[in-house]
């Protein structure tokens, strides 16, 4: 039987949907306040929902009964310093618990890491799975949590765990709505004046799920894979989204010093109002960096061809536009 953690999240929901479409019985973990996604209701006969926080060892052990395959999607995503300790506890300790449970049950694991846990390449080179963070990124608490989570999986592999790791780039898809990566689309639609000089890796959520399922059903172990369809400059991405929405594209480039002032100002406003800042330091700094990722390894390993990002953008815009007309 298959266990999916984080099954109510953006990626987890798509993964469960694809597995259920194959007629596979599933056990999915959720926290007591999580709501079952609407798109999974048609597959209710195949899905057993259990309340099990990955930080609760006993609940996790109970959820693992009879499990032979585990997809670990559960994670806390935040760049706020205030979330550092609880996020690291959830992402790192939770992953350690999943790893230990898999070892005890003899289950195979596909772990969802992130490109945040991958290092950087020299200027002009593509970033590959061979790049590792040479030093802990002190200010990027999310990167710290994903790096240390991945280290727990490697520790498990050293102890005999059968596992593979995926490192997705920025995941987009129509099912995200206006939250998560969907905020990029909403921001452009509402009118964005500035663009930045950096680049970003993008991948469709359905492709990430499909890569994970295909990897699970191979004998590949002790490997990590960047899951990235295409590399886009932010300007090209914003221009394309604006064109699809029939709105004006951003025309002014935000320089590094401007972004520095912007995140500091947003931080001050957030402190005064008690609300999360509209722009954080990590996002501001990364927006000006060109980071291009190589997807050769996963394509060769499972013979995969990624969906064009242009098509995914069309799908996201269509869904968001349709919601406005309701």
From TrEMBL:
Source taxon at top rank: Bacteria
GO molecular function, a single term: aldehyde dehydrogenase (NAD+) activity
PANTHER family referenced in this protein's UniProt entry, alphabetically: NAD(P)-BINDING DOMAIN-CONTAINING PROTEIN-RELATED, PROTEIN YEEZ
GO cellular component assignments: cytoplasm
Signal sequence region: none
Protein name: NAD-dependent epimerase/dehydratase domain-containing protein
InterPro entries noted in UniProt: Epimerase_deHydtase (IPR001509), NAD(P)-bd_dom_sf (IPR036291), NAD(P)-dependent_oxidoreduct (IPR051783)
SUPFAM superfamilies: NAD(P)-binding Rossmann-fold domains (SSF51735)
Pfam family for this entry, one: Epimerase
Domain NAD-dependent epimerase/dehydratase span(s) in chain numbering: 2-218
